[in-house]
Amino acid sequence: MSDADLEEVGYIRKGRLTQLQQQQQGGASGAAGKDEQRKQEEAEARTSILSQILQPEAADRLGRIRLVKESRATDVENRLIMLARSGQLRAKVTEEQLKELLGAVAENNERDGTASGKIVVSRRKGGWEDDDDLLDL
Fold this sequence. Notes:
The protein is mostly helical. It is 72% helix and 0% strand.
């Protein structure tokens, strides 16, 4: 093989390598796109179910809870969807019923030890030296 043939083979190899890399990136983005599409469909299904089982006031309250603590809102939504699928909900959930469910979820989280709403303050033990008194002079 001559030098020209070797260079041509090198160009072909480089071109094929870039083509394979592009296909691999396209496949990865395709899989990510499918995951994103699946998540979006699940979110739409959840919203549809919740709009069917919640009164507007309860839906508003759940939306405000989501702004403050998304994990708690997701727990409540999961429980509501579970109750709806098992047929335990006879009518739309009112705001008062949602408050009761929130209390039950909060108690359940406290009992399980997953309540992250508690703040623990640990203070240093021993004498405090008050150096700020010198600044008052």
